[in-house]
Amino acid sequence: MPVVSCHFTDGASFEVDADSGESFLEVALRHGVPIRNQCRSGTCLSCLGRYAAGSGPLSPRPGRPSSLLPVDKEQGKALCCVSEVTSEGDIYFDYPSDEAGPSEAKCFIDSIEWIASDAVKLTVELADGDWLDFRSGQYVEIAVPDSSRCRSYSMCTAPNDLPQLAFMVRILAGGLMSEYLTTIAKPDDVLTLRGPFGGFAWSGSRSAPQLFIAGGTGLSPICSILHEIRNVAGAKPPMTLSLGCATPEALLAPDYLRLLESWMPTLSLRLSAEFGDVEGAVMRGNALTAIDFSAVTPQTEAYVCGPEGLINAATKKLVEVGVPATNIYYERFVASGAT
Amino acid sequence: MSDKQPVRRRSQAKRANSEAVQNEYQPYVDAEWGFVNHWYPALFSNELGEGDVEGIQIAGIQIVLRRANGKVYALKDQCIHRGVRLSAKPMCFNKETISCWYHGFTFNLESGNLDTIVGNPDDPLIGNTNLTTYPVEEVAGLIFVFVRSDDYPDEDVPPLSEDLPLRFPENSDRFPHPLWPASPSLLDESVVALGIHRTGEANWRIACENGFDNAHILVHKDNTIVQANNWVLPLGIRPASEDCITVFDDAGGPKGMMQWLFTDRWEPILENKTLDVKVEGLNSRLYRTSVIMPGVLLVENWPEEGIAQYEWYVPITDDTYEYWEVLVKHCPTSESEEQFTYRFDTVFQPLALRGFNDCDLHAREAMQDFYADGTGWQKEQLVETDISAIMWRKLASRHNRGIAPPPPGAQGRDKASSIRLRNVSEGKSPGYYVEKIDDLNNFNRTSVRQKGR
Ligand SMILES: Cc1cc2nc3c(=O)[nH]c(=O)nc-3n(C[C@H](O)[C@H](O)[C@H](O)COP(=O)(O)OP(=O)(O)OC[C@H]3O[C@@H](n4cnc5c(N)ncnc54)[C@H](O)[C@@H]3O)c2cc1C
Ligand code: FES
Ligand code: FES
Ligand SMILES: [Fe+2]
């Protein structure tokens, strides 16, 4: 049986004997290898690993979709949960082996306020004695009360706002969580969170220009990252935030974003709407057309969050103007649907 | 968490705070303990002789200063071992280090590294940890410290000039004034700076906003220096033009705002007919104020021609600040320096820095209770002359380099600590300097009980 060595940033490494025909994540977890994971279906990127070169010991399992782009695969990224072992080799994970995994926490609803025509901001506070650490950009699963279902939501607050957390949630007609939040939920109700999940996080670079591209509530994790940058000690990088929504009324918390812009001298804000009466500082178009790509340098680090179409178009455009794919981070809000 | 345990809310106090309305200048409202990652004056040079050690506190951060071979070093005054203040009982075995008097952790003055432990020289911790150090600049008899958060990188420390007022004549074209073409700057050559500093009991923002409040000169109406000189000090000065204030925020330069006082952009009010009050003075006393991050006031042409008054309202805790008043004048000859010093001692210090500005200390203290619990920022009802304060709040929200968190483990965080209460009962009010141990053999308490004799 081929042996795969798993390496973590704290220097720990684990050897796994495995055969093909089974998800590498499952085998590795059985061997006690602390690979982050959540969806186990090739979507959330939690179990992302990298090879030293373009290829390595894993191959995609036939018939399993994955959210990796072709360029990710060329660069030797793999999702353990939808891969199987086909040869010996090494795989690297960008986090320490001893980090606490996802945990469960109860919280109380502080407020639910409309921040756009089809979105609310849900603010909660962790219950006494409960805690949930996360990195800005990550998300949690929230159990929909009185149902067996969970929905994923990205925090729009930063870790040092804990024990308070907030989420920007798009309200879908007939949606399970949407209905709960708009018709049943009230302050002081208790919710159950599980997390954190996801690898969408700030790179920590204070010199490279940072470009944030958000569609709709994709703004949520980006807000979290902006708060982290505001809190970090030292000179701040130049930043652009482009938010696109369907109509001007659907723009999320535009007044608050303008305040953030006035508090962060190196941040510049672009707001755009595809339809409706566009006026003032809001541009006609979408989060991509609002960006002056001639000013985007290859050093730029880009963070994209929003619908599938936006992520694909943004990645294509960024690669076209010379931004290496390794500088592009994205998060997909995959539809929860009937699961 | 098991479902059987009851799910309880955290303390209500915290929640009330976080529900506060987001304000246009919320970062300023949040800066109760001041702004960090800025340059602040710490001591006058003559307060720290060769070999001396002093402990102070700025923005909730305890800082120990030591002068060795003429150079001033500043380190965090909170031992990494058990949190003891090094300055409480200074112990230095050489010119390169300072040791903690409790278990002898010995820190390099330059790097802050743990160089050795007096009674434990082979411990593996040695060389692997450090105390935060603070960059120091000494100019014109003032020691400035860059008060930073522990993780603020060295390479991002800005020059002192970024946190000091605009300099002249290089800014004379942009901010001309016919009567004082080039106000003196602390950074100029042949400049002499004379001043005082003391602790005021108010939040630093209340103090700072008083400094450039153009309606508050009413409190100075009855000051001795005003009446003795027959000065025309208006009852108030109201904004009379949309460009009454100019913000300056060039990259690499100071961030602040200039008030075009005693130009046609501001209207001095000399009479109130409703009340039948009139300014009776004969001699005009013109000046101009600007305020710069992190809260530095420049009063040009004050209290006399050719002099500039600098002020700082350095946060100590959220309810005390160190009030600095420094007069700056070009004195190219030793004769002119002597004259300035004589006038400082006989007139400016007693009548201006004390007399005139003492009534500002009264006014700031009088505002403190209204703002102390945070509600004052929402309840205040403003008028047009408050434009200066509001522009400053917005500017400070944008250009601060960091908001000081309520300090973990520092003096003044716990308002009712037993030590604080004892000090107060012994007649020592909370202040700027560390309480030094002057007699280790004598923990002076009145209530010692003995038995067995
Ligand atoms: C990693 C991750 C992070 C996420 N973060 C956020 C976030 O920060 N804010 C946020 O608003 N949402 C986020 N989502 C989406 C969120 O989890 C839910 O899918 C969404 O809120 C709908 O839940 P619901 O219960 O209201 O509707 P459901 O009952 O799940 O669905 C109702 C109807 O809407 C359709 N639908 C479901 N989801 C979507 C969608 N995303 N777009 C379009 N149609 C959909 C369904 O197919 C169904 O027809 C995230 C999803 C993932 C996977
Ligand atoms: S755990 Fe592999 S993609 Fe989610
Ligand atoms: S507390 Fe300083 S050495 Fe122990
Ligand atoms: Fe005054």
CATH class call of the largest domain in chain B:
Alpha Beta
The main β sheet of chain B shows up as: 7 strands, antiparallel
Question: Helix share of residues of chain B?
Answer: 10-25%
Going across the biggest sheet of chain B, name each strand in turn.
11-23-22-21-20-15-14
Subunit arrangement of the protein: heterodimer
End-to-end Cα distance of chain B: 58 Å
> What is the name of the CATH class of the largest domain in chain A?
Alpha Beta
For the record, the CATH architecture of the largest domain in chain B stands as Alpha-Beta Complex
Basic shape of chain B: globular
Structural category of chain B is alpha+beta
Helix-and-strand structural type of chain A = alpha/beta
| Total of DSSP H or I helical runs spanning 4+ residues of chain A | 6
Helix content of chain A: 10-25%
Low-confidence stretches of chain B: 13-21
Greatest interface and its participating residue counts: A-B, 27 and 28 residues
Beta content of chain A comes to 25-35%
Tags for this entry?
heterodimer; A: 339 residues; alpha/beta; Ubiquitin-like (UB roll); Elongation Factor Tu (Ef-tu), domain 3; Rossmann fold; 3 domains; six-stranded antiparallel sheet; six-stranded parallel sheet; 6 helices; 19 strands; 17% helix; globular; B: 453 residues; alpha+beta; N-terminal domain of TfIIb; Naphthalene 1,2-dioxygenase Alpha Subunit, Chain A, domain 1; 2 domains; seven-stranded antiparallel sheet; four-stranded antiparallel sheet; 8 helices; 23 strands; 20% helix; binds flavin-adenine dinucleotide; binds FE2/S2 (inorganic) cluster; binds fe (ii) ion
Task: Describe this protein's structure.
The complex is a heterodimer of chains A (339) and B (453). With 339 residues, chain A is α/β, with parallel strands linked by helices. In chain A, a hairpin with a 6-residue loop joins strand 10 and strand 11. Chain A has helices at 24-30, 70-74, 176-184, 219-231, 254-263, 308-320, and strands at 3-7, 13-17, 48-50, 58-60, 77-79, 83-85, 89-92, 103-116, 119-126, 139-143, 150-154, 164-170, 190-197, 210-215, 239-245, 267-273, 282-284, 301-306, 328-332. Chain A has 3 domains: 3-92, Ubiquitin-like (UB roll) (Roll), CATH 3.10.20.30; 103-197, Translation factors (Elongation Factor Tu (Ef-tu), domain 3, Beta Barrel); 210-332, Rossmann fold (3-Layer(aba) Sandwich), CATH 3.40.50. In chain B, helix 3 (204-211) crosses helix 5 (334-372). A 7-stranded antiparallel sheet of chain B has the order 11-23-22-21-20-15-14. In chain B, strand 9 (136-139) and strand 10 form a beta hairpin. Chain B folds into 2 domains: 35-157 and 406-436, N-terminal domain of TfIIb (Single Sheet); 161-399, Alpha-Beta Complex (Naphthalene 1,2-dioxygenase Alpha Subunit, Chain A, domain 1). Chain B is α+β, with helices and mostly antiparallel strands and 453 residues long. The N and C termini of chain B lie far apart (58 Å). Chain B is globular and about 75 Å long. Chain A binds chain B through residues 104-106, 108, 110-111, 125-130, 163-164, 188, 190, 231-235, 256, 259, 262-265, and chain B through 1, 5, 7-10, 14-15, 18-19, 22, 24, 26-27, 37, 148-153, 156, 249, 394, 397-399, 402. The complex binds flavin-adenine dinucleotide, FE2/S2 (inorganic) cluster (2 copies) and fe (ii) ion (FE2).
